[in-house]
Specification:
- It is a single chain.
- The protein has 440 residues and is mainly alpha-helical.
- The chain folds into four domains: 4-55, no CATH class; 122-220, no CATH class; 233-336, no CATH class; 339-433, no CATH class.
- It is built from 23 helices and five strands.
- The protein has helices at residues 4-16, 22-27, 32-40, 57-69, 73-86, 91-103, 107-119, 125-139, 144-152, 170-181, 185-198, 203-231, 235-248, 253-269, 284-289, 293-306, 315-329, 339-342, 344-353, 357-363, 368-384, 388-399, 406-417, and strands at 20-21, 44-48, 51-54, 429-432, 435-438.
- A three-stranded antiparallel beta sheet has the order 1-3-2. A two-stranded antiparallel sheet has the order 4-5.
- A hairpin with a 2-residue loop joins strand 2 and strand 3 (51-54).
- Helix 4 runs antiparallel to helix 5 (73-86) and helix 5 packs across helix 6.
Amino acid sequence: MINEENLNKIYDSIIEGNELTTKRLNSYGFNSRDITTLINRKKIRRIKRGYYTFLSSNDLVLYGKKLISLKKYNEAETCFEKSYEISPNAFEICLQLFLREIKLKNYSEAFKYFDCLYKNSNSYCIKDNNFYLYLLNMITEVPEKYKECIRTLTFDDIKLNIKDTKLKNPSLQNKIRLTAYNRYFSLASRQLNDLVKQEKLSISNLIISILLEQAFTEQHLVIDKKLELIKNKQYQEFINYLEQLQKRYKLNSADKYALILAKDLVDIIDGKIPNQQSISCNNIFKAIDSKNYEQALKFSKVRLKKENQDFGKNIIHILLLEITKILSKKGMNKSNQNYAINNIKAIASLMLSKPEIEEVCKKFNLNDEQKCIVLLILAKDLYLQGDILSGDKYLKQAEKIKSTSKKIKDLLEEIRKNKNITKEDTKQLVLKQGGIKNDK
C-alpha cells in the first residue's frame, strides 16, 4: 500500500544507507503492484532485478524539512545530502546544505553550494544571494570569481523590492540590510531578532542571522589584531594587514585614516616629515588630511571623552599620540613645525653643492611652492656671483612651477627685471605659514 507511513519508511531507509530491494520494499508494505506504481510515478527506478534506486529528490527535501520540525537535525542533514546526490543543481537542496556549512564555518564547502544558488538565482533570490556574499566577504576570503562582484556591490544590489508581495515586512528587511551594509552587525542582528518575533523564521533569515553573528565576531578579531600590531609598534605589519583587508573590501573611515597615519608615522620615523597644509580643520579627518597632527589629537580627545571611549583602545588616537611625541622630540612643535622650511636657505646651499634638485626636495619633503622658493634663492645667489647661465637654469625651473602666491610672483618679477642685484640689496627669505616674509 502506498501511503505516507510506508513512504516515510523508504526515506528512513535511504537516510540509513540501506539498499532498496524488492524484499525490503515488501517489508515496508509495498506489493509488486505498488512497486510498479512507484516506478511509473518516477519515484524509484529498477537498476537490476530485485534492486532499485530512489529518484524523487523533492520528496526527500520535504521529508528533511519535516525532520527539522521534529528537531532530528542529523537525520535531516543526511536527507538533504541524499537529495543532493540525486539533484546536485536543485536550488532548495543547495540552500539547505549551504546553511549547514556556514553553521559549521566550512566556508570552502559552503561556496560549493553557493555556486548553485548564485547560478540559479531568479530576480527575487539574487538580492538574498548578494547579501550572503557581502556578509561572507566580511568573514572570509571569497573565491576569485566573486571578487569583481564584491568590488562593485552596492546597497541597491542587496535591497529588496518593497513592492514584492512575497515579503511580509520589506521595509524592516531593508533596514536590517542597510545597517549590515554599514557594518553595524550587532545592531543588524538585534533588528533581525525583532523581525523574527513578528513573522515565521525563514531559511533566508536564518542564514542571514548566522552570517551576521559571524561577521560581528570576525570584526572584533580584526580589531584585536590591529590593536595588537599598533601597541607592539609593528607599524609596517599593520599597514600590510590593512592593505590585505583593503583588497577584500572598502575600508571604513576609521581604518582608512588609521592607514594614512601609520604610513605617515613610518615616514616620520625614517626622517621624512609630511608637509602641514595651512587650511581650516573642523574635524579630525580634515586635520589628518592636512597633516595637522596636534589639532587632530585635540579632536580625538574631545570625541573619545564625549563618547566615553577608552583612549588606549582607539587606534587613531594611539597613532596620533606617537606621531606628536616623535615630532616633539625632533623639534617639530608649533614654533618650529618644519625644519626644512625654516632652514630653506641652508637647503639652497646644499643644492649648490649637489645639483640633484629632485633628490634634495624629496629628502626634505618640499612641496612645489617650497621647491619654487629654493630655486629662486639659488637663482638669486648665482646671479649675485655673476653665474648668469646657472642662474637662468634655476629661474626657468622655478617659472615652470605654477604658484598662486603673490610673494612668489613678485620675487619672480624682481629677479627677471634685475639679474645684477648687489649683495647689499639681498634680504634673507624665510617661508612662514601662508607665504614668504622678508626679515630685516
